[in-house]
Design goal:
Length: about 260
């Protein structure tokens, strides 16, 4: 009996210890469950945030792609507009050139008629009045030289244009005659001589509309030869000195391609 009384307190203590361990385990389990639930909620919230961020990135990428596509279309439209503008300018120049050639032909014909009319009068004119003018006029020289050039007789054509410059240096046909002289050299693949003559047009006839034409042709030659800084300077000079010319608009387009 005494032995039972001694064991009873120990058994009670052991029972209390067992009860305490189960309670701690239960509390730990509750804490773990709470932590897992909180972690699950945090993961869910982060997942929502990530999904929202991905959605925003996707929308942003779509917007960027849309803007890029619009810019590409705009660049294509601008390039097409510039090309079309340049083409129209060239067409106008060609039509203008046709009109100029027709006027040139009429002027040459008129000069020839005047000379034919003056020839009979020269035989009856007193010597004191001086002889009547002899030889073709500037329009005739220009037209005949141009005809030779169209036939492929470049040297003969160049000689005719040079004769015009010698006899009628102040003629309105003189600047264009020099441009055709340069063109004959270019056709003979003598670009150095052609560029030199183009430069003389600008130097001798700076106020002529043909000066811008000569400078533009010279700039194109420089570009084809790979002399890009000189070509850029020539295009810029056209815009600066001849801003209202058709060549000025063409020069702006050339500068854009050169990366002004």
């Amino acid at each position: 009996m005494m032995r039972l009384r001694a064991v009873a307190p120990a058994a009670a203590l052991l029972a209390c210890g067992c009860l305490a361990s189960k309670r701690d385990v239960f509390m730990l389990q509750n804490q773990l469950s709470s932590m897992q639930a909180a972690s699950a909620r945090a993961d869910s919230a982060r997942r929502v945030q990530v999904d929202a961020l991905l959605s925003a990135v996707t929308t942003s990428n779509d917007s960027v792609r849309a803007i890029s596509a619009r810019l590409a279309r705009l660049q294509t439209t601008v390039s097409t507009d510039h090309y079309e503008m340049g083409r129209q300018i060239l067409q106008i120049q060609e039509l203008s050139g046709q009109s100029q050639r027709r006027l040139q032909e009429l002027r040459a014909s008129l000069e020839e008629r005047n000379q034919n009319a003056a020839a009979p009068l020269a035989s009856t004119t007193p010597d004191s009045l001086g002889p009547a003018p002899a030889g073709p006029g500037p329009a005739q020289l220009f037209q005949s030289s141009l005809d030779q050039m169209r036939r492929g007789s470049l040297r003969v054509a160049r000689n005719g244009f040079e004769q015009l410059l010698q006899q009628y240096p102040n003629s309105e046909d003189a600047p264009e005659a020099m441009i055709y002289i340069a063109a004959t050299y270019a056709s003979e693949r003598n670009q150095v001589a052609a560029d030199s003559v183009y430069g003389l047009v600008v130097q001798r006839y700076p106020t002529s509309p043909k000066a811008a034409t000569a400078l533009y042709k010279q700039a194109l030659s420089m570009r084809e030869a790979g002399r890009l800084p000189q070509a850029r300077a020539a295009f810029e000079r056209i815009i600066r000195d001849y801003p209202r010319s058709d060549e000025a608009e063409l020069a702006r387009g050339q500068l854009r391609t050169l990366g002004r």
